[in-house]
Amino acid sequence: MIYLDHNASSPLDERVEEAIRPYQNKFFGNPSSLHRHGRLCRDAINRARAQVAQLVGAQPSQIVFTSGGTEANNLAIQGWAAAHPSGIVVAGATEHPSVIEPLEVLARRGKPIARIAVDASGMIHPANLRTMVNDRKALVSIMLANNETGVIQDCKALAQALEGTEAVLHTDAVQAVGKIPVNFEQLGGGLMTLSGHKIGAPQGIGALVIGPGIRLEPLLYGGGQESGLRAGTENVAAIVGFGKAAELARIELAERRERLLRLRDRLEHRLNRLAGTTIFAQNAPRLCNTVQFGVSGIDGETLVMFLDRAGIALSSGSACASGGGEPSPVLTAMGIPAELAKSAVRVSLGPGNTEKDIDRLIEVLTQLHPRHAQVA
Q1: Best CA proximity match to 170, nearest among 86, 246, 245, 98
Q2: Signed CA dihedral, 151, 280, 246, 39: sign only
Q3: pLDDT score of 319 more than 60
Q4: Are 225 and 232 in contact (CB under 8 A)?
Q5: DSSP state letters, 35-59
Q6: What is the 3-state secondary structure (H, E, C) of 208-262?
């Protein structure tokens, strides 16, 4: 099977698996216990906290471990809303479902919310954001890199546009980390969501980075773990894996980017020669590993199943919102016509992919229908 769905989940790095192993069968203590077993696990968590913090230019004390990106996004949005009853919550029109759904819950509870429009490339303009926020107390939630199109927002400029306001910027950096340089302070130092399984760590581990002076109400109450913001005994093995994956992502960032960009360019060059194929947001700044495209006249989910039978795994959009039969909300927000948007599929490359994988994908696409055959 050729796996081209790394934005949904990446394989566990063998080096991460090795780092985890002792905490699955040897060091099993509760990190809150005072005995030696507990202290060893607490030390391991502290090391991992420092590794994750170093990846994004934050302080270890600012890292709160969660069960993943979805919980971190919910903690940021619902936690901030509960701590600031008079504030408004604002989000981009192309955000992940784990941002959009909490917003809709807040709206049903009477909380004022707003959505920021994007242009045809999926970009948010800083001036529009500043006008929308104005002088209101607000949480502004913006993805650094879109999970479907790969479009990279200029969050540094957006953070600068919010200077002098009472707004806090929450950056969902789940897809960006490990693919582009990410610096928490340069992106406003407010709130930032991270996830482990996008960078070779286990599934079920993530983090929320919290800047100084940011007040949040916890979603979970209990033993007071994670600075009182995330109660529950920590998943030591997963946290250790997240820390190791973060360390590797930081050290290998440039090498990974260069290699994935070569593969992405090869794929796009070949796709552009296929009749009836559209690459979405092709001229926008995008992740080195992500290509979302559509083939006219072919439903995206149908194409995913066709490719699956040919031994190629990719997706028709966000793994957290697939299977609905409706066009992607991300592409709809960008003004893409519904018929074309419904044809969308996403290739997201990872460390195990090769040029042969790209060539095989193009070969299968060319076989799909004669009118989509490669042109000169």
Answers
A1: 98
A2: positive
A3: no
A4: yes
A5: SHHHHHHHHHHHHHHHHHHHHTT--
A6: EEECCCCCCCCCCCCCCCCCCCCCCCCCHHHHHHHHHHHHHHHHHHHHHHHHHHH
Whether 320 sits among the annotated catalytic residues: the reply is: yes
CA 20/CA 236 separation, integer angstroms: 9
Tens of pLDDT, residues 2-38: 999 999 999 999 999 999 999 998 998 999 888 988 8
| Cα–Cα dist 174/203, whole Å | 13
Q: Which two tokens stand for residue 107?
A: 């709206």
Do 123 and 152 touch, CB atoms closer than 8 A? no
Q: What is the pTM of this model?
A: 0.94
Measured CA angle at 61 (ends 201, 80), to 5 deg = 90
Closest CA to 265 of 156, 340, 358: 358
Rounded-to-integer distance, Cα 144 and Cα 147, Å? 9
Residue 327: CA count within 13 A, CB half-sphere: 16
Confidence of residue 316 (pLDDT cuts 50, 70, 90): confident
Q: Where are the alpha helices (DSSP H) in 56-125?
A: 69-83, 97-108
The HSE-up count of residue 163 (CA atoms within 13 Å, CB side) is: 9
Is the confidence at residue 367, as pLDDT, over 80? yes
Q: Burial of 141 by CB count in 10 Å (0-12 exposed, 13-18 middle, 19+ buried)?
A: buried
Q: Domains in the chain, start-ordered, CATH in brackets?
A: 2-8+253-372 (3.90.1150.10), 14-248 (3.40.640.10)
pLDDT tens for residues 166-197? Answer: 999 999 999 999 999 999 999 999 999 999 99
The string of pLDDT tens digits covering residues 139-168 is 999 999 999 999 999 999 999 999 999 999
